[in-house]
């Protein structure tokens, strides 16, 4: 088959406009397909890191928007296997003009003494860490936020509350680096409690959730079961889940994301097969007499079939390679978008995803060209030579 490669290449470039449009249409579809595959892998197949596997989130069993009493934290600390516990309160609010996308990032109040025990992957200098621990109005921010907003240690950050009727004046005392999760601002929970008004009653004694760091991964399932059992008869029952499961729970608010991604990928594949099949049908139809000439020169039906299929696969692979390159670029752009709760830092077109997309492209070429190629190969030589379009 390799000796006919020159013939295949010439045939693909015979109608350059049609070939270019076909490659671009396949590339656009494979770009979306590759991006969807990368999202599916990042959300559902990627394994949690060692640090992530040690963390648990405790929230109200009813809903993420419901609260739990803050004294739950003291009881959770007494459970064997728990290394550290911190309240994790979503502050919300706004920073400067909330209409500008760069000003949107996650803002949490935490037990400042436990922050870097629970998140050991947050790399920060000891000097910055001690400054954050000492100062009541201090905050630490991720490197991505600092770079995007031009913030440095010592700068002032003012947050206008919406969920909480307060105005917090914070001072940046540290900038942490992390492979993922660089879109957060953390400040002292005690400062938030002190800033809240006394009305309504109990307003200061609630928590959105708690985050736990276990001593070892073997203790994680047991701790989750003990926490939920401890508050089973309470008016505020809890749901304890791993950090990764908690992140995926936000995707569930959009519906069945897994089925959506798979359905969209199937629809894209089916659409590009139709486009490619139409192109190949037109190409083969125009070259019906040429096929007859090849048959008179000694080409067998199998050889004619192989040449046409090779042409279709070559075009599809060219589109697939271009599509994967575009998918890599799109994933790079998506990782730069500020997001909350669900991290996109693991969104990559891995070699496995790239090979899978190329395999899909090759399959598209074979499926789209099979019917017209078989029809051309089985046509009698006389009929092919007499064929007029």
Furnish the topology, listing elements before pairings:
Elements: H1 5-12, H2 16-45, H3 50-53, E1 55-60, E2 68-69, H4 72-77, E3 82-90, E4 94-95, E5 106-110, H5 115-118, H6 126-134, E6 138-142, H7 143-149, E7 156-160, E8 167-176, E9 184-188, H8 189-195, E10 206-207, E11 209-214, H9 220-230, E12 238-242, H10 243-252, H11 257-286, H12 288-296, H13 301-335, H14 351-378, H15 381-386
Parallel strand pairs: 5-9, 6-8
Antiparallel strand pairs: 1-11, 1-12, 2-10, 3-5, 3-11, 4-7, 6-9, 7-8
Helix pairs in contact: 1-13, 2-11, 2-13, 2-14, 11-14, 13-14
Description of the molecule:
The radius of gyration is 30 Å and the shape is elongated. The strands form 2 sheets. The protein has a 10-stranded mixed beta sheet with strand order 4-7-8-6-9-5-3-11-1-12. 52% of the residues lie in helices and 16% in strands. 33% of the residues are buried. It has 389 residues and is α+β, with helices and mostly antiparallel strands. The chain folds into 2 domains: 2-47 and 256-386, no CATH class; 67-235, no CATH class.
């Amino acid at each position: 088959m390799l000796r006919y490669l020159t013939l295949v290449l010439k045939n693909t470039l015979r109608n350059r406009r049609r070939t270019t449009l076909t490659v671009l249409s396949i590339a656009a579809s494979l770009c979306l397909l590759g991006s969807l595959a990368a999202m599916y892998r990042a959300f559902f197949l990627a394994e949690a890191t060692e640090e992530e596997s040690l963390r648990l989130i405790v929230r109200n069993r009813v809903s993420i928007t419901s609260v739990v009493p803050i004294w739950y934290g003291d009881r959770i600390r007494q459970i064997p296997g728990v290394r550290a516990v911190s309240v994790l309160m979503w502050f919300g609010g706004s920073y400067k003009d909330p209409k500008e996308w760069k000003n949107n990032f996650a803002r949490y109040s935490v037990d400042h003494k436990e922050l870097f025990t629970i998140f050991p992957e947050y790399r920060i200098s000891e000097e910055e860490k001690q400054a954050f621990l000492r100062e009541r109005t201090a905050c630490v921010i991720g490197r991505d936020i600092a770079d995007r907003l031009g913030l440095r240690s010592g700068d002032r950050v003012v947050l206008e509350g919406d969920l909480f009727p307060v105005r917090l004046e914070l001072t940046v005392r540290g900038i942490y680096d992390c492979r993922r999760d660089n879109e957060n601002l953390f400040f002292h929970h005690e400062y938030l409690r002190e800033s809240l008004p006394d009305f309504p009653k109990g307003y200061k004694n609630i928590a959105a959730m708690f985050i736990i760091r276990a001593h070892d991964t073997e203790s994680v399932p047991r701790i989750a079961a003990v926490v939920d059992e401890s508050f089973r008869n309470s008016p505020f029952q809890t749901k304890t889940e791993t950090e990764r499961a908690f992140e995926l729970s936000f995707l569930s608010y959009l519906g069945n994301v897994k089925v959506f991604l798979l359905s969209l990928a199937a629809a894209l594949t089916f659409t590009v097969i139709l486009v490619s099949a139409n192109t190949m049908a037109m190409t083969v139809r125009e070259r019906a007499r040429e096929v007859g000439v090849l048959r008179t020169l000694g080409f067998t039906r199998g050889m004619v079939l192989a040449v046409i299929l090779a042409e279709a696969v070559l075009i599809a692979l060219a589109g697939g390679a271009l599509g994967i390159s575009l998918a890599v670029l799109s994933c790079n752009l998506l990782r730069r978008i500020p997001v909350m709760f669900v991290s996109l830092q693991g969104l990559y077109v891995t070699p496995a995803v790239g090979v899978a997309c190329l395999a899909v492209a090759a399959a598209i070429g074979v499926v789209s060209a099979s019917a017209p190629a078989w029809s051309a190969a089985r046509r009698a030589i006389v009929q092919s030579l007499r064929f007029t379009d």
